[in-house]
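stage 2 :: seqdesign
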């Protein structure tokens, strides 16, 4: 989803200082210590990224992979530790089952593995559940 379609911006205004009365109206709605600060100029693309991240537009990117070292350790020690890892900006989540709702992509990149060493993984911005618990929400309109 493109957030620019839902927000109305004046594309010519991003390089000019925002009038003080505009920031006054915005700052009046934000609880502060009573001081109104002039926030200055802003870059439109930066604002769009911040708004997109705040509203989780398009969903939070999650990377899912299988940890082969835990599989080997489980076989050797007779354990059943979780081998599936789902990673996003909120942390790492481990489980025995993962459910993905929405689009996903399987990536094989042997020449540029993840920092954990995985060469094959799944990337998604859809909703991900690890062992029945949602670790992210898909997005504003999902």
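stage 2 :: out
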């Amino acid at each position: 989803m493109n957030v620019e379609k839902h927000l109305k911006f004046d594309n010519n205004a991003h390089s000019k200082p925002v009038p003080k009365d505009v920031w006054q109206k915005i700052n009046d709605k934000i609880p502060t210590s009573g001081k109104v600060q002039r926030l200055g100029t802003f870059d439109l693309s930066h604002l769009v990224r911040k708004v997109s991240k705040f509203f989780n537009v398009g969903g939070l990117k999650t990377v899912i992979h299988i940890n082969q070292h835990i599989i080997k350790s489980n076989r050797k020690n007779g354990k059943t530790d979780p081998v599936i890892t789902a990673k996003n900006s909120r942390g790492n989540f481990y489980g025995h089952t993962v459910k993905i709702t929405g689009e996903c992509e399987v990536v094989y990149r042997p020449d540029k593995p993840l920092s954990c060493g995985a060469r094959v993984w799944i990337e998604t911005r859809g909703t991900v559940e690890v062992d029945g618990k949602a670790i992210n929400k898909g997005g504003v309109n999902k």
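stage 3 :: structure notes
- Confidence is low (pLDDT under 50) at residues 3-15.
- Residues 99 and 129 are 5 Å apart (CA to CA).
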